[in-house]
Amino acid sequence: MAKKTFCDLCGKEIPSTSRVFDISVFDEKRDRTISEREACGRCVTRVHRALNFLARQAPRVTAVLLLVALTWSAAGARPFYKDKKFWLGLAVDSAAMAADYKTSQDLFARGGTELNPIFGSRRPGSGRMVAIGLPLTAAVAFVGHRIGESKHSKLWWIPSALDGGDHVVLAIHNGQVCPAGARCR
To answer: What is the reported pTM?
Structure first.
């Protein structure tokens, strides 16, 4: 009887007639493989589509952050997705980010412009802002998770608090630059 093979990404059994794909993350500096996973064809297609989408949105930044998160989660003692501190930091920071991006869109509608060059445009759409900003926010929450696992475990909240505080200050600033009802030049 043949050994059953399961997909490491979705958990479903891979039929013996189907092809098994190996997904690996390779560290070129240390010349070693950091993470290896077996995946079914459907999951490989999903990963490929996701990476292509992210590459179109924010070419290098988003793809690098995604790979860093995948490799660090494989190396950590406790997976980040089971850590309440990670989700708390991500939720607070994401709420502040949403407020910042909403006030930015309102400012653009009044004639204002974006000064942050990472968005690649003077008036980026909300989709572009979220596609670039959300992975950065998740990376900040993940850094907080890693700090929580280290000897400085009581400082886990600092990265999300700094990033979230920055978004709150920018949201307030967006409302004051060109007050509601006024038209910016």
So the answer is: 0.54
